[in-house]
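BUG-320 | component: ligand-complex export | severity: low

The export step for acetyl coenzyme *A jobs runs without errors, but we want the raw record kept on the ticket for reference. Input record follows.
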Amino acid sequence: ARRSLLVGFGGFLPDRVVSNDELAVRLETSDEWIKTRTGITQRHIAGEHDTATSMGAAAARRALDYAGLSADDIDAVIVATSTPDQAFPATAVRIQAELGMTQGFGFDLAAACSGFVYGLSTADAFIRAGQARNILVIGSEVYSRIVDWSDRGTCVLFGDGAGAVVLSGSDAPGDKGLLSTHLHSDGTAGDLLYVDGAVGRRDKSGYLKMSGRDVFRHAVAKLSSSVDEALKAEGLDYSDVNWLVPHQANIRIIEGVAKKLSLPAEQVVITVDRHANTSAASIPLALDEAVRDGRIQKGDLVLMEALGGGLTWGSALARL
Ligand code: ACO
């Protein structure tokens, strides 16, 4: 059966790095508080000219380069973002233009922090159906523009950036590629984490709001059952997993899931310490880092999982 191979990886982080100490100058917070509660020490923050489009295009170029493909080879661009530059055209279509593409199709996907997992799942379905051969799946986020910089309970948690992968359909026999994706959402918990207003609701603040404790509780429980579901579906065991590449929201959530899998810390890719929570960009940024520095090798079984506003959550299991 046709499989989607992960053939390219790319990331982009804005130049400006903001440390916890720098935030503590303007907010009643401390490096100690942020580090012990979240594992975050710093985050990258978009400059005036960095947008979901520009950062996503930069990550996409690097992923294409890694794959040895050009934009002409791409049939579809799927961008997971909660922070598009405009209501429309979609960020994906703007990125197509930046890459010089006039062929193929592109659209944005809104699933908050789970967006990249949703993107992989969507792209895989297009590839298996024969509707596309090569697809760019991008997560690109500028949460610095939707956090309330006077709310210490949320603004310290997020950072900006973009990550991309190229999925490529293959009919060759073998065990490589995306093995499965599992998606979930439950709107009854929608008020635990949301952005108050958007282009369609200008009477609202436009700021991110979160009940941190409740999200935390949901995250550990739902992500643990999500990784169970992923492995069970493939007849695999915890010990088969070479790498956990989780959404990077909080080190304590990540450690909770790793513990559930009995995975040692050395097999978990962590970027939250340096990137903070980059929402839909966090998994492809982490993948890019660990593939390029040689930690993740060809043949490795990689388990990705995420939970975000919606609530949305899910997993993707791939053999690279
Ligand atoms: N610096 C100092 N003190 C702070 C800060 C801060 N930045 N933020 C909150 N506090 C204070 C609070 O005001 C509170 O003080 P009080 O007891 O006097 O009222 C105290 O610290 C404890 O606050 P809690 O919110 O109860 O702290 P908690 O231990 O739950 O940690 C945190 C908060 C880090 C947000 C945690 O709940 C968490 O990580 N939740 C998950 C959130 C998350 O990961 N969201 C993203 C997932 S989905 C997605 O990625 C979009």
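Assignee comment: Attached the raw record above. The longest strand covers residues 160-170.
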